[in-house]
# Entry
Amino acid sequence: MSDAGTESVLVVIPTYNERENLGSVVRRLRAVLPEVHILVVDDGSPDGTGEFADELAEADPRVHVMHRTAKAGLGAAYIAGFRWALAHDYGAIVEMDADGSHAPEDLPRILRALTGADLVIGSRYVPGGSVVNWPRRRQLLSKGGNLYSRLALGVKIKDITAGFRAYRSTVLEKLDLGDIASHGYCFQIDLAWRSVLAGFTVVEVPITFTEREIGESKMSGSIVREAVLQVAKWGIRRRAGKLRAGIARDKA
Ligand SMILES: Nc1nc2c(ncn2[C@@H]2O[C@H](COP(=O)(O)OP(=O)(O)O)[C@@H](O)[C@H]2O)c(=O)[nH]1
Ligand SMILES: [Mg+2]
# Structure
Protein backbone atom coordinates (compact mmCIF):
# COMPACT_ATOMS: atom_id res chain seq x y z
CA MET A 1 0.00 0.00 0.00
CA SER A 2 2.99 2.27 -0.39
CA ASP A 3 1.49 4.50 -3.05
CA ALA A 4 -2.20 3.82 -2.51
CA GLY A 5 -4.46 6.00 -0.39
CA THR A 6 -7.29 4.74 1.76
CA GLU A 7 -9.64 4.91 -1.25
CA SER A 8 -7.85 1.79 -2.46
CA VAL A 9 -8.63 -0.16 0.71
CA LEU A 10 -11.38 -2.76 0.91
CA VAL A 11 -12.58 -3.87 4.35
CA VAL A 12 -14.14 -7.33 4.09
CA ILE A 13 -16.67 -8.05 6.85
CA PRO A 14 -18.09 -11.60 6.97
CA THR A 15 -21.49 -11.80 8.63
CA TYR A 16 -23.78 -14.43 10.00
CA ASN A 17 -26.65 -13.12 12.13
CA GLU A 18 -25.09 -9.74 12.88
CA ARG A 19 -28.02 -7.48 12.08
CA GLU A 20 -27.80 -5.74 15.47
CA ASN A 21 -24.05 -5.17 15.19
CA LEU A 22 -23.29 -4.31 11.57
CA GLY A 23 -24.69 -0.78 11.50
CA SER A 24 -22.54 0.45 14.34
CA VAL A 25 -19.35 -1.09 12.91
CA VAL A 26 -19.95 0.49 9.50
CA ARG A 27 -20.76 3.86 11.10
CA ARG A 28 -17.61 3.80 13.20
CA LEU A 29 -15.53 2.79 10.17
CA ARG A 30 -16.93 5.68 8.18
CA ALA A 31 -16.12 8.12 10.98
CA VAL A 32 -12.42 7.18 11.07
CA LEU A 33 -11.84 6.27 7.43
CA PRO A 34 -14.41 8.00 5.19
CA GLU A 35 -12.87 6.75 1.93
CA VAL A 36 -12.44 3.02 2.48
CA HIS A 37 -14.70 0.62 0.66
CA ILE A 38 -16.53 -2.07 2.60
CA LEU A 39 -17.65 -5.49 1.39
CA VAL A 40 -20.13 -7.34 3.59
CA VAL A 41 -20.07 -11.08 2.85
CA ASP A 42 -23.28 -12.50 4.23
CA ASP A 43 -24.05 -16.22 4.30
CA GLY A 44 -27.81 -15.90 4.03
CA SER A 45 -28.28 -14.89 7.68
CA PRO A 46 -31.79 -15.78 8.83
CA ASP A 47 -31.93 -12.61 10.98
CA GLY A 48 -31.95 -10.36 7.88
CA THR A 49 -28.32 -9.12 8.09
CA GLY A 50 -28.07 -9.36 4.28
CA GLU A 51 -31.12 -7.16 3.69
CA PHE A 52 -29.86 -4.67 6.26
CA ALA A 53 -26.48 -4.59 4.49
CA ASP A 54 -28.31 -3.85 1.22
CA GLU A 55 -29.92 -0.83 2.90
CA LEU A 56 -26.49 0.38 4.03
CA ALA A 57 -25.20 -0.06 0.46
CA GLU A 58 -28.08 1.94 -0.97
CA ALA A 59 -27.19 4.85 1.28
CA ASP A 60 -23.43 4.62 0.75
CA PRO A 61 -21.87 3.88 -2.67
CA ARG A 62 -18.69 2.66 -0.98
CA VAL A 63 -20.53 -0.20 0.74
CA HIS A 64 -20.90 -3.44 -1.27
CA VAL A 65 -22.68 -6.66 -0.39
CA MET A 66 -22.07 -10.24 -1.43
CA HIS A 67 -24.94 -12.60 -0.76
CA ARG A 68 -24.09 -16.25 -0.38
CA THR A 69 -26.74 -18.88 -0.05
CA ALA A 70 -25.73 -20.87 3.02
CA LYS A 71 -23.46 -20.70 6.05
CA ALA A 72 -20.20 -22.13 4.73
CA GLY A 73 -17.71 -20.92 7.34
CA LEU A 74 -15.50 -17.92 7.83
CA GLY A 75 -12.75 -19.17 5.49
CA ALA A 76 -15.03 -19.65 2.50
CA ALA A 77 -16.62 -16.23 3.05
CA TYR A 78 -13.22 -14.54 3.13
CA ILE A 79 -11.94 -16.37 0.05
CA ALA A 80 -15.01 -15.18 -1.88
CA GLY A 81 -14.43 -11.63 -0.60
CA PHE A 82 -10.74 -11.73 -1.50
CA ARG A 83 -11.48 -12.85 -5.05
CA TRP A 84 -13.93 -9.96 -5.42
CA ALA A 85 -11.30 -7.56 -4.03
CA LEU A 86 -8.63 -8.74 -6.47
CA ALA A 87 -11.05 -8.53 -9.39
CA HIS A 88 -11.73 -4.90 -8.41
CA ASP A 89 -8.05 -3.92 -8.04
CA TYR A 90 -7.95 -2.79 -4.42
CA GLY A 91 -4.43 -2.14 -3.11
CA ALA A 92 -5.05 -3.34 0.43
CA ILE A 93 -7.56 -5.82 1.80
CA VAL A 94 -8.66 -5.82 5.43
CA GLU A 95 -10.33 -8.58 7.48
CA MET A 96 -12.61 -7.41 10.26
CA ASP A 97 -15.38 -8.94 12.39
CA ALA A 98 -18.89 -7.48 12.35
CA ASP A 99 -19.57 -7.84 16.07
CA GLY A 100 -17.60 -4.83 17.34
CA SER A 101 -14.73 -6.92 18.73
CA HIS A 102 -12.35 -5.19 16.33
CA ALA A 103 -12.37 -1.45 16.90
CA PRO A 104 -12.51 0.45 13.60
CA GLU A 105 -10.56 3.17 15.43
CA ASP A 106 -7.54 0.83 15.40
CA LEU A 107 -7.60 0.44 11.62
CA PRO A 108 -5.70 3.64 10.65
CA ARG A 109 -2.74 2.39 12.72
CA ILE A 110 -2.92 -1.05 11.08
CA LEU A 111 -2.98 0.53 7.62
CA ARG A 112 -0.06 2.81 8.46
CA ALA A 113 1.98 -0.25 9.43
CA LEU A 114 1.17 -1.79 6.03
CA THR A 115 3.44 0.78 4.37
CA GLY A 116 6.35 -1.25 5.83
CA ALA A 117 4.93 -4.78 5.67
CA ASP A 118 2.97 -7.18 3.49
CA LEU A 119 0.64 -8.43 6.20
CA VAL A 120 -0.24 -6.55 9.38
CA ILE A 121 -1.92 -8.48 12.17
CA GLY A 122 -3.88 -6.62 14.84
CA SER A 123 -2.51 -8.51 17.82
CA ARG A 124 -3.83 -9.11 21.32
CA TYR A 125 -0.61 -10.69 22.48
CA VAL A 126 2.13 -8.13 21.79
CA PRO A 127 2.91 -5.39 24.34
CA GLY A 128 0.03 -2.92 24.38
CA GLY A 129 -2.50 -5.45 23.09
CA SER A 130 -5.35 -6.79 25.25
CA VAL A 131 -8.62 -8.67 25.46
CA VAL A 132 -11.67 -7.26 27.23
CA ASN A 133 -14.56 -9.33 28.59
CA TRP A 134 -13.58 -12.75 27.39
CA PRO A 135 -14.52 -15.63 29.68
CA ARG A 136 -11.55 -17.55 31.03
CA ARG A 137 -12.37 -20.57 28.85
CA ARG A 138 -12.12 -18.48 25.68
CA GLN A 139 -8.88 -16.84 26.80
CA LEU A 140 -7.32 -20.24 27.45
CA LEU A 141 -8.50 -21.54 24.08
CA SER A 142 -6.99 -18.57 22.27
CA LYS A 143 -3.69 -18.54 24.16
CA GLY A 144 -3.43 -22.32 23.90
CA GLY A 145 -4.21 -22.24 20.18
CA ASN A 146 -1.51 -19.66 19.61
CA LEU A 147 1.10 -21.54 21.63
CA TYR A 148 0.25 -24.81 19.88
CA SER A 149 0.49 -23.16 16.45
CA ARG A 150 3.79 -21.45 17.26
CA LEU A 151 5.34 -24.71 18.41
CA ALA A 152 3.95 -26.82 15.56
CA LEU A 153 4.80 -24.37 12.79
CA GLY A 154 7.91 -22.73 14.23
CA VAL A 155 6.65 -19.20 13.60
CA LYS A 156 7.20 -16.20 15.84
CA ILE A 157 3.77 -14.61 15.35
CA LYS A 158 2.17 -14.08 18.77
CA ASP A 159 -1.45 -13.86 17.60
CA ILE A 160 -1.65 -16.10 14.56
CA THR A 161 -5.38 -16.76 15.05
CA ALA A 162 -6.27 -13.05 15.02
CA GLY A 163 -8.94 -11.91 12.59
CA PHE A 164 -8.24 -8.18 12.36
CA ARG A 165 -5.59 -7.82 9.65
CA ALA A 166 -4.55 -6.01 6.50
CA TYR A 167 -2.95 -7.63 3.48
CA ARG A 168 -1.30 -5.98 0.54
CA SER A 169 -3.16 -7.27 -2.47
CA THR A 170 0.13 -8.64 -3.83
CA VAL A 171 0.08 -11.23 -1.01
CA LEU A 172 -3.38 -12.52 -1.89
CA GLU A 173 -2.49 -12.49 -5.59
CA LYS A 174 0.50 -14.71 -4.92
CA LEU A 175 -1.12 -17.17 -2.50
CA ASP A 176 -3.15 -19.87 -4.23
CA LEU A 177 -6.61 -19.07 -2.89
CA GLY A 178 -8.07 -22.08 -4.69
CA ASP A 179 -5.84 -24.37 -2.64
CA ILE A 180 -7.12 -23.14 0.75
CA ALA A 181 -9.62 -25.56 2.22
CA SER A 182 -9.74 -24.26 5.82
CA HIS A 183 -13.38 -23.66 6.64
CA GLY A 184 -13.38 -22.26 10.16
CA TYR A 185 -11.06 -20.03 12.11
CA CYS A 186 -7.94 -22.06 11.25
CA PHE A 187 -8.23 -20.15 8.00
CA GLN A 188 -6.45 -17.31 9.85
CA ILE A 189 -3.56 -19.58 10.84
CA ASP A 190 -3.47 -21.00 7.32
CA LEU A 191 -3.11 -17.62 5.61
CA ALA A 192 -0.52 -16.27 8.04
CA TRP A 193 1.51 -19.48 7.69
CA ARG A 194 1.32 -19.37 3.89
CA SER A 195 2.38 -15.70 3.95
CA VAL A 196 5.43 -16.55 6.05
CA LEU A 197 6.37 -19.49 3.80
CA ALA A 198 6.06 -17.26 0.73
CA GLY A 199 8.60 -14.86 2.28
CA PHE A 200 6.25 -11.96 2.96
CA THR A 201 6.90 -9.56 5.84
CA VAL A 202 4.41 -10.04 8.66
CA VAL A 203 4.20 -7.53 11.51
CA GLU A 204 1.93 -7.35 14.55
CA VAL A 205 0.52 -4.13 15.96
CA PRO A 206 -1.27 -4.08 19.32
CA ILE A 207 -5.06 -3.91 19.43
CA THR A 208 -7.71 -4.15 22.11
CA PHE A 209 -10.17 -6.96 21.36
CA THR A 210 -13.51 -6.47 23.09
CA GLU A 211 -15.96 -9.38 23.30
CA ARG A 212 -19.28 -8.77 21.56
CA GLU A 213 -22.14 -7.38 23.62
CA ILE A 214 -24.91 -8.46 21.24
CA GLY A 215 -25.51 -11.77 19.47
CA GLU A 216 -23.68 -15.07 19.71
CA SER A 217 -20.24 -16.35 18.86
CA LYS A 218 -20.15 -18.90 16.04
CA MET A 219 -17.15 -20.67 17.55
CA SER A 220 -17.84 -24.41 17.86
CA GLY A 221 -16.21 -27.70 18.75
CA SER A 222 -15.88 -28.66 15.10
CA ILE A 223 -14.06 -25.40 14.36
CA VAL A 224 -11.57 -26.15 17.15
CA ARG A 225 -11.13 -29.77 15.97
CA GLU A 226 -10.45 -28.64 12.40
CA ALA A 227 -7.77 -26.22 13.63
CA VAL A 228 -6.05 -28.79 15.86
CA LEU A 229 -5.91 -31.38 13.07
CA GLN A 230 -4.89 -28.98 10.31
CA VAL A 231 -2.08 -27.38 12.34
CA ALA A 232 -0.80 -30.86 13.29
CA LYS A 233 -0.78 -31.80 9.59
CA TRP A 234 1.11 -28.65 8.57
CA GLY A 235 3.56 -29.14 11.44
CA ILE A 236 4.27 -32.76 10.44
CA ARG A 237 4.68 -31.74 6.81
CA ARG A 238 7.14 -29.03 7.84
CA ARG A 239 9.22 -31.45 9.94
CA ALA A 240 9.17 -34.10 7.20
CA GLY A 241 10.40 -31.47 4.73
CA LYS A 242 13.28 -30.54 7.05
CA LEU A 243 14.16 -34.20 7.54
CA ARG A 244 14.23 -34.80 3.79
CA ALA A 245 16.42 -31.73 3.28
CA GLY A 246 18.77 -32.99 6.01
CA ILE A 247 19.06 -36.46 4.42
CA ALA A 248 19.71 -34.91 1.01
CA ARG A 249 22.45 -32.72 2.56
CA ASP A 250 24.06 -35.72 4.30
CA LYS A 251 24.10 -37.70 1.06
CA ALA A 252 25.66 -34.86 -0.91
N1 LIG B 1 -20.23 -15.12 6.26
C1 LIG B 1 -19.93 -15.80 7.38
N2 LIG B 1 -19.52 -15.11 8.46
C2 LIG B 1 -19.22 -15.81 9.59
C3 LIG B 1 -19.33 -17.23 9.68
N3 LIG B 1 -18.94 -17.61 10.93
C4 LIG B 1 -18.62 -16.48 11.59
N4 LIG B 1 -18.79 -15.38 10.80
C5 LIG B 1 -18.52 -13.97 11.11
O1 LIG B 1 -17.16 -13.90 11.51
C6 LIG B 1 -16.99 -12.91 12.53
C7 LIG B 1 -16.39 -13.55 13.76
O2 LIG B 1 -17.31 -14.50 14.30
P1 LIG B 1 -17.60 -14.67 15.86
O3 LIG B 1 -18.67 -15.68 15.98
O4 LIG B 1 -17.80 -13.36 16.51
O5 LIG B 1 -16.25 -15.32 16.37
P2 LIG B 1 -15.49 -15.11 17.75
O6 LIG B 1 -15.24 -13.64 17.88
O7 LIG B 1 -14.25 -15.90 17.58
O8 LIG B 1 -16.38 -15.65 18.81
C8 LIG B 1 -18.37 -12.31 12.76
O9 LIG B 1 -18.50 -11.15 11.98
C9 LIG B 1 -19.30 -13.43 12.29
O10 LIG B 1 -20.58 -12.97 11.89
C10 LIG B 1 -19.79 -17.92 8.50
O11 LIG B 1 -19.93 -19.15 8.46
N5 LIG B 1 -20.07 -17.16 7.40
MG1 LIG C 1 -16.71 -12.29 17.89
